[in-house]
């Protein structure tokens, strides 16, 4: 028994001091915590402002600040800061790089006793972050201020000794990210939820402009991102947008400065049209896009470099006529040219494009971008070689364009942009074309803002539009021959409308509002519709829905002609003006150009100026206002053409009727052409006309006052002065020439020489009215004059034989 009591005493005496020490330590910790809580409650929170700001500035090297501050107590105390700011680099676009409405931090208290900073939760409300490069320095790279007296070794030791916080949960809400190339509407981050226990994991959702994006990532320890030394920091990122997916996997050697990184990129976008918002402009309907390769960067603010990057595009139709079956861009390395390849069809004919662009490394750093492309289509080959001086701005393009097609010749020019990335069109300078169809040169500028616009000057030695049209025409399909029953159909009777000389062609000038132009054109020889037109000079203008050709001067086989025309599509009814002027024309050759059988020969002149409005050419003519003038001098006309005026015995004459002058001037008002002058002087005598021509229905209401010597076989002719009404239509005029016979018979019977006196008008005044006062040749009259004792009265029997051709 005694031995047992001794043992108990020995155990108690051994254990009691140790138990007392443990209780004492626990009691001391409780007292310290309670005392700390009471102390915090008694302290003013503003006393912590200077050390917090000093810590932020020491960590970033930037000025920092915040508004109000609130402390919460307990074993997990917290602090809430409002209106937190972090300064931008000097010279930045705004004073603060970071603005946060509220920062809430919950701290684990016990780890502080061991010198560890452990944040249970970090929450940021409405952060506004600006990322930009200032004087070549990215503002997201932070540098701690160096003490003047501290050595590099001392500063490195201080950085190693500074405790880095450990963060458990990170929550970011309603953030906005700003940077120079941000999409319209910016980047709005709805949420980011992350955990920093062990390796960093996060997920979130944002809107890139109007494009929704969700993402998640797994990375290395958060401490490396906060600046702790260590190995390369791995990162795997996945994002879903526009129905597609983008993945990046790689590592950063310096994650805090986002530098020294490389990532393997994979992207698949089945519907790239949804990415139009990223380009801030409409995007054509493209096929599926796939991308794979590697991006490498050093974090100096320069764009990343691509390595072994391949972009492919699925089948795509590009309006109006291009259908791509394959498109591929391969970038082997940033310092090597990118390889571009396109395959497809244009208008049903094979289309190819191959070439090189780059290297891209120099271009991404502000240098020039070389390129060499070859295009094949319709048996022709086009090459484009040169460089773009400022590729990031899309300006400074100087590209040599060469187009060759066997049998058609070649075209060379220098191509440059108008506006960044050809936004305002392009310019072709030093154009030089050589070939059987086209030869010459000049300058052309094609704009597209706000409307397509063509302007420039072309001087060509020759232009064969007939051959060009034939070369570009698609071959006729090889269809089996069809048989039709050989049953003749009776021709329908021609209606009055079908006998009109003025065709009924629709006038629609609304398309003039779709473009603009200002083009000067000179062509030594123009081949058109089988005709050779020489010395062509033209100036075409188009603006605000109105077109003007002023002038178009050319030499036809019949002589020199000047045309002026204007059309206005901006009015409720289409308006058009036509002006035609020609002097010293070979009348027979001139009329033959238009497919008309020449009724006479001689020196011709034409002066026409009409303007009107209407939905078609006949309505336009019916409303026209202006004048029509014509003249002919020193001409001849076959007698057979006067069959309606001459007696039957004189209709078969094979001789020529000499014409001294033929002059006409009609003033046109509301489609009615009223004759101011209508005069002819020739070997038969004189004719002076009056009346009108209706351009509304092409009917004639003219009266020809004649003073003629009608040839009668077997006689010296018969002097007749009589009116000849002309009715019918322009295409089928009707001459009532029997009045001449009646006057002739009346004269034979001794009843007088006619119903009218002699015509006193001469060629000079008549031609002056036709020419509107312009100078021109005035021939001598050829009209026969009766002398005393000349032209005895013919015998009645001889006259009747001549009239009746018996």
Describe the protein in words.
The protein has 806 residues and is an alpha+beta fold. Helices cover 16% and strands 48% of the residues. It contains 13 helices and 41 strands. The strands form 2 sheets. It has a 39-stranded mixed beta sheet that branches. The chain starts with a helix and ends with a helix. The relative contact order is 0.03. Residues 1-43, 150-160, 648-654 and 802-806 have low confidence and may be disordered.
SSE topology:
Blueprint: H1 2-42, H2 49-60, E1 64-65, E2 69-72, E3 78-87, E4 96-107, E5 118-130, E6 133-134, E7 137-138, H3 152-161, E8 166-178, E9 187-195, E10 199-208, E11 211-221, H4 222-225, E12 233-241, E13 244-254, E14 259-269, H5 276-279, E15 289-297, E16 305-313, E17 316-318, E18 322-331, E19 338-346, E20 349-357, H6 360-364, E21 369-377, E22 380-390, E23 395-405, E24 409-417, E25 425-434, E26 438-447, E27 453-464, H7 465-472, E28 516-528, E29 531-543, E30 546-556, E31 559-568, E32 575-586, H8 587-593, E33 601-613, H9 617-622, E34 625-638, H10 648-651, E35 656-669, E36 672-682, E37 685-694, E38 700-710, E39 718-720, E40 723-728, E41 733-735, H11 738-748, H12 763-770, H13 796-804
Parallel strand pairs: 5-8, 27-28
Antiparallel strand pairs: 1-3, 2-3, 3-4, 4-5, 6-7, 8-9, 9-10, 10-11, 11-12, 12-13, 13-14, 14-15, 15-16, 16-18, 17-18, 18-19, 19-20, 20-21, 21-22, 22-23, 23-24, 24-25, 25-26, 26-27, 28-29, 29-30, 30-31, 31-32, 32-33, 33-34, 34-35, 35-36, 36-37, 37-38, 38-39, 38-40, 40-41
